[in-house]
Amino acid sequence: MGFNMAQRVAAMALIMVCLNANHCMGQSTPRALVSQEYFNSLMSAVGARCEGKSFYTYDGFIRAAELATSFGTAGSDVLRKREVAAFLANAMHETGGFCYVSEIRKSDYCDSTNTQWPCAAGKRYFGRGPLQLTWNYNYGKAGQALGFDGLNNPDIVSQDPMISFRTAFWFWMNNCHDAIIQDRGFGATIRAINGGECKGRKPTAVNSRISYYRRFCRDFGVDPGLNLSC
């Protein structure tokens, strides 16, 4: 049976949508890989006294993930799964298994030489959120990109779960996404998030991230690839 002109136009339109949005193969959203049940299984291991127990929610994670254009949906099916695994691995390490929302050892983290994103009086820019957003310039840039006052109100990253996850994905998409999609390996994400660990001072921390990454890759049924360490 042949196709009429209207059917051909519709078919071509569908093909173009698939090509432009990378939706024709693999997951078209991280939701297809990380279900509510799977996320809840991660949170079930979080101690009752942990501040992250009720703060980090599936809704906050998945909504922020889907707002981060191309996260877990770009490249091959293997790279898509690796990216989700890599994000979760780094987040689990940074937060002690989603236990902490704010950094334990809090410092000001004010780069006074940065005049574009000057520190606000009395504000501290220690790590907050899934990837522990740190430094005044990161708070300033994230706030500008996401629509909140990061310099004058950094605490919102540890108070609003949605903003908290969105800052993590903002940092990820600007610093880690390409490393995974270009198949440079998990180690490149460690360098981007905490390069100090890559100088041989914190091998335990590096191994922790890699262990989490291998775990999520196993769960998602994908080979972790090469260059896992930084």
From TrEMBL:
Top-level enzyme category: hydrolase
Keywords, alphabetical: Carbohydrate metabolism, Chitin degradation, Chitin-binding, Disulfide bond, Glycosidase, Hydrolase, Polysaccharide degradation, Signal
CDD domains named in the record: chitinase_GH19 (cd00325)
EC number(s) per entry: 3.2.1.14
Cysteines joined through disulfide linkages: 50-99, 110-119, 198-230
Coiled-coil parts of chain: none
Residue ranges of domain Glycoside hydrolase family 19 catalytic in the record: 163-173
Signal peptide: 1-26
Protein name: chitinase
Organism, as annotated: Cinnamomum micranthum f. kanehirae
